[in-house]
TrEMBL record:
Pfam families: MULE. Residues 148-242 form the MULE transposase domain. It comes from the Eukaryota. This is MULE transposase domain-containing protein. InterPro entries: MULE_transposase_dom (IPR018289). It comes from Trametes coccinea (strain BRFM310) (Pycnoporus coccineus).
Amino acid sequence: RMERFPCSGWLHLTVSDVSEIAIISVKHKCDHVAYLNIDLPNHWKAYIEEHARTQTPGQVSPSLAVVEKQIDVPFRSKAVYYYWGTVCRREWRLSDTPLASARKFLEERGEEFNVRALDIKEEPGTEVVAFYVKDFVNEWARNTQELGLDSTWNTNGGNFELFAAVADADGAGIPLAFLFISTSKGTDSGAKQIVLERFLGELKLLGVNPEFTLSDKDWSEINAMQATWTTAKHQLCFWHALRAVKQRLSKNKATPAPYDPEEAHHNFSFIDPQFVPLAQQKHTDATASGPPPKRPDYQFCPAAHRLPILRLFAKHASQHPLLPERHGQARTAEDIYRDAVSEMYHHCFANNLREAWAYLWNSWYRRPRWNLWARSAYSASIPCKRTTMMVEALWRNLKRLVLHMYNRPPVDLALYALITQALP
């Protein structure tokens, strides 16, 4: 940093729209000290050019300090980052726009890094770039029994959401394919699901045919996987499901969605059709109309009852016909379903948890929802994976080991870092 002086100087720029020459006038009332040259030395530039492909800026600066055999280097890290970006841009900036540059990198240099672009048709309002890892797909696609799909944000400066399809391999996660997708405010609500169906459809054509699919509570992911592999058992991530129940039970002033007691009673005769949330109860006064007013002491689920519900929920999620009960007697999938509904309903009934029961039935214990999260809904076998942690581990490594070295990278740099740094 240079010393400042009260020189009362001024700087005047004259720029013409008909000429490429700008006139610059500078005036000072007193002399300044000589300017310090802050350009990187040539041998530093040579080092950066040699190692730009294998080291990130955060790794280059300490290495230069070691080369110079000094800790306090005379140049700031921003200068190193800038020159590193200038050198690396020759590798990943292949077009004027980041998205076109990312696509061109896959087309021209994908074979060099053992990846290949997927031709995914875009929906109006979306932008898409996708690829798969060739040797992973060639060696493991036909052996994929469990496939997880999850997304992450904050990997790039273009607000692209990044999806990964990860196969389970004896406890390890093998990333088969990746999808960058961005949506705008005017994008149709179902556009992302359609793009995901096309992305997963390409994986299916490559030989991926899992027995189990796994995702969090994102309905676009759930619907896309069910539409692609219609006979596969979709398993909702147990961690996400348990967190969703816990968070909803904690919203103590919120009322549940409309509950159909007749439907519940029709499916299970032991469910009392009069056991409904307060907002759906009829007035005792015959002259009154509409739902009863909300009481000031209203509670969706008192705190003391939340943990017992979570324990029952976890128990019901884990049961399976291939796992005999403590007394040794096996139960069918239908037995487990009926007993789980009965146990949760009677617990709520005994504790007058009307609101909680309405929510649990609507969101979890109706047949279509039960099939998503209960392992017993698929009686032929038990999935090894209960959560999407193998995909979350991939995101953790990508962000903490690679992307944290970059300052809000554009999508082409994020794709380049993913292929050249994270995948190896």
